[in-house]
């Protein structure tokens, strides 16, 4: 099992599942969410609308996760999770940790081997990258230790630049 970080574009990553930093409505948005919806094509929005019309009528709660097919992405699955928005006073680190843990729960249910995460809640949601990296790395490592029989072998954090990579690498070294 490995946990690593790389600079890249999440929409081009070859992994069994990519995690989408979604909004609670699951209908696309900006940033990572918008990029994933654009790259996956219109069937992703249709799949999200079906979720909204069935199991997630009120949207997806902060810290929860749900999967759809990835359609035109190189991945097989998109795991949507809603991170806490620090600008809205959503500052509980447990809610952020839940994004990573619930995404891994869903990935394990799908029997995937590799999962690629963005820096959920960093950027537009205002969480400092160092906090996101520390929480993400600790949560993923803890999840792997608690689920040794899970199919997941490779967890990657895919970030946009060297600064974010350095922050995640520091978190990986510290843990």
UniProtKB/TrEMBL annotation:
SMART domains: A1pp
Signal peptide boundaries: none
Domain Macro: 1-175
PROSITE patterns to which the protein is assigned, alphabetical: MACRO (PS51154)
CDD domains according to UniProt: Macro_OAADPr_deacetylase
Source organism superkingdom: Bacteria
Pfam family, one: Macro
PANTHER family: GANGLIOSIDE INDUCED DIFFERENTIATION ASSOCIATED PROTEIN 2-RELATED (PTHR11106), MACRO DOMAIN-CONTAINING PROTEIN (PTHR11106:SF27)
Official protein name in the record: O-acetyl-ADP-ribose deacetylase
The species this protein was found in: Promicromonospora umidemergens
């Amino acid at each position: 099992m490995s946990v690593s970080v790389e600079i890249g574009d999440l929409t081009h990553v070859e992994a069994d599942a990519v995690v989408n930093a979604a909004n609670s409505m699951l209908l696309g948005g900006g940033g990572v969410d918008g990029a994933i919806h654009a790259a996956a094509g219109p069937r992703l929005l249709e799949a999200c609308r079906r979720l909204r019309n069935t199991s997630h009528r009120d949207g997806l709660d902060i810290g929860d996760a749900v999967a759809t097919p990835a359609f035109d992405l190189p991945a097989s699955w998109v795991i949507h999770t809603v991170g806490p928005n620090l600008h809205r006073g959503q500052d509980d680190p447990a809610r952020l940790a839940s994004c990573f843990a619930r995404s891994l729960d869903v990935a394990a249910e799908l029997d995937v081997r590799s999962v690629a995460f963005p820096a959920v809640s960093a950027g537009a949601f205002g969480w400092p990258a160092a906090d996101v990296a520390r929480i993400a790395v600790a949560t993923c490592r803890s999840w792997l230790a608690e689920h040794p029989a899970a199919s997941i072998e490779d967890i990657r954090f895919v970030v946009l630049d060297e600064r974010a990579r350095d922050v995640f690498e520091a978190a990986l070294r510290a843990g």
